[in-house]
Amino acid sequence: MTGVNSATGPHPAGLAIGGVQLAGPLVQAALSGYSDRAMRLIARRHGAAYAVGEVLLDRFVAEAKQGRKAMARLAVDPGEHPVGGQLMGANPDDFAPAARRLVAEGYDVIDINFGCPVKKVLGRCRGGYLLSQPETALEIVSRVRDAVPPAVPVTLKMRRGLDDSPASRESFWTIFDGAFARGVAAITVHGRSVVQRYDGPSDWGFLAEVKRHAGQRTVIGSGDLFSARACVAMLEQTGVDGVSVARGAIGNPWIFSQARDLLAGRPAASLPTIHEQRQVLEEHWTLAAEVHGEDVAARTMRKFAIKYARSHPDHLAVRDAFVAVRGGTDWQAVLERFYGSDGPGRDPSADIDET
C-alpha cells in the first residue's frame, strides 16, 4: 500500500488532478453553505493545496445573471487558483451549459456531486440519489466531459453507495470505473453511505479497497478528518492520493498547516494562540464582507464563528457571544472582549469523537 510515513520522512509528492498539479495532498472540500470564496481563500492561505466551491445547482449556474448575489457564489478570486466548482442536478441536459459557465467564470476543475445525503436533495433525485442510477450518473459524466475543454479536468464526489446492499455496491463500482473510462481525472470517495449521512464512522477500510482497485488512478479520501493527525492517518492507512477535509476545516483552517507540517516530517505547528485566532477571524470577516456585503456577512459569519470559538479556551462563552452578533460593530465587540488578551489556544478536535 502506498501512502505517507510521517515517522520516516516527508510526503513524497503532491497531487495531480489531470493536468492540474497541486502542491500537496490536502484539499478543502465543497461544503454547502460554507465553502464560499472567503472560506476558500482562508483555507488556501493556511496550506490547502486546492479548494472546491460550495455545491451549485446546474440550472442556477447556467441561468444566473451578473448581479452581486449570484456572483458572490460564482466568482473566483485570482489568488485561489487552482480552484474547483461543484455541480449538482438531476437532468443530464442541464449539466453541460452549467459546466461551460463555470469554466467561463475561471474554475480550473469541474466537480460533479454524487454524494450529498440531504433528504431534500435525495427527494429531487440529485446528489447521492444518483448512486442508485448508474446509467443517468454516467450520462451526466459524459455530458460534462464533452462540454468543457480537454485541458479542464472533470472530477466526481461519491459516497461508498446509497446503502450497504449488494446492489448498491455494484452500482458504486459501475459508476466508479465508468466515470474513469469516460475521462474523469479523479474521484473523491467519502467512506459513509448516503443513508448513513454523518452517523457512525467513515469506513476507511473501504477507501483502502477503492485505492487498491484504482491503481494509478487518482482517488481522494473523505470522512472523519477533524484533525491534522487524522489527515495523515488516512493517507497512511488507505493509500489514497489526497484527503478532502470538510466539516473539520470549518472554523479551523489551521488543520491544513498542521497536516502539512506532519507530512513534511516536522512537528505540527502549535495550536493558534488567542491573538492568532483573532487575526484570522478579522481576515475572514473582511473577506466575507467583500464577497457578500456587511449585512449578509454578519449572518454568514455566525455559523463560522461558532466553530472558530472551539479553539478559544472559553469556547462556550465565545460561541454564545458570536451567536448574538448582528453586524460589524457586534463582531468587533466580541473580538475585543474575548480576543483582546493573548494566551494559548485549545484543540478544537477535543470535542469530536474521531473513532
Explain what this protein looks like in three dimensions.
44% of the residues lie in helices and 13% in strands. By secondary structure, it is α/β, with parallel strands linked by helices. It has two domains: 15-263, Aldolase class I (TIM Barrel), CATH 3.20.20.70; 274-339, Orthogonal Bundle (Non-ribosomal Peptide Synthetase Peptidyl Carrier Protein, Chain A). An eight-stranded parallel beta barrel has the order 3-4-6-7-8-9-10-11, surrounded by seven helices. It has a two-stranded antiparallel ribbon with strand order 1-2. Strand 10 (218-222), helix 9 and strand 11 (242-245) form a beta-alpha-beta unit. The longest helix has 19 residues, at 274-292.
